[in-house]
Amino acid sequence: MSIDDIGFATAQIHAGQDRGAAHGSRVVPIHLASGFAFDDFDQARDRFSGADDGYSYTRMGNPTTAAVERKLAALEGGREALLVGSGQAALTVALLGLLRAGDHLVSSRHIYEGSRGLFRENLAGFGIQVSFVDDIDDPDAWRAAARPETRAFFGESIANPRNQVLDIPLVSAVAHESDLPLIVDNTFATPFLHRPLEWGADLVVHSTSKFLSGHGAALGGAVIEGGSFGWSGDAARWPQLDRATHGDRAFFVHLRNTVAGRLGPTIAPFNAFLLQQGIETLSLRVARHSANALEVARWLQEQPEVTSVDYVGLESSPWHATARRLLARGDGSVFAFTVAGGQPAAAALIERLELFSHMSHLGDVRSLIMHPTTTSHARLSDQERAQLGIDPGMLRVSIGIEDAADLIRDLRAGLDAAAAATPAELQNAAIARG
Fold it and tell me: Are 331 and 426 members of one domain?
């Protein structure tokens, strides 16, 4: 079932369903099985050779997981998808499918700090180098970062935590000049707001634990391939791909069988089932998330205790015009704002809140808040945080689907607490700016 033939809300419910495999159930059943029995000797041989695409072992594939993979591929407009145990596993698997010792990755600097740590420390340990691009809107900056040994470009459709929007047509054009794929983390936008493959990306990754699930109950990750990148073009660049056997599917077969299949970041069938349940209400939730976030962000930018709000839905955002061009149905739920009193004020605000949960997560139906300086970005130096725009008074919020008026009341109480913890000269400076 193609997303081009039906509406998004219809696809999020029906795409990927196999009524025969569900034995009459309209809900995808949970196949809690480590392995699957073979009908006969020949079937076992054929499944291990690839001649039969049935199931043998859940690490390599499972009917519950496969149904959700088909749905995700349809929603992103991709050819096929792979589900794994977490978003970090999805990014790792995607990169290790492309990169080997001596290779090089070009990445936006404005990404989830866990991904930056993966690149700078773990990939470096494998002999893989990474260059970061600061000005992601400058095509020459991306060009200058590329090398002969570069194998991929990477960025986030909406960046964590400061809400920069990646101009995917611009970056993909630069990547494709050198016949390189662009990988985009689409966790914040989801395919409801933005489908990177339609704008030139070649691979999409998700932390499905976030908006795609929505309930915050189960980890998961996904890699989706668009199907248009010519993996068979340069045999020397990716010698690990078996083009002779698999043609233009060589990368994804390698990803599923050799990388994920051997490293084993398997998603549990029950987690895949929970993800399936969440996806069925994705459009309803993300529309509400986005509407609430815009209302809260507009309110915050008018408050004297707040020095800045980084949300692309606001006309003050440097990426507002890019968002209007690329994001079809809203601007998402996650953004950052900064209070005048620095870390003491941020701490006081968090401690005062009642509706916002203080936790390292996002994309939940509940509103969440976190202080990047002391959590996700704590291992960075002051200079590195400043380079990323991470101020001691910055707070990252993920706006849920509660009533916006109640969230604003909660934040008003938090800002009152922040003001009480802020020195008078900083309060006066904030009032003067307002």
Answer: yes
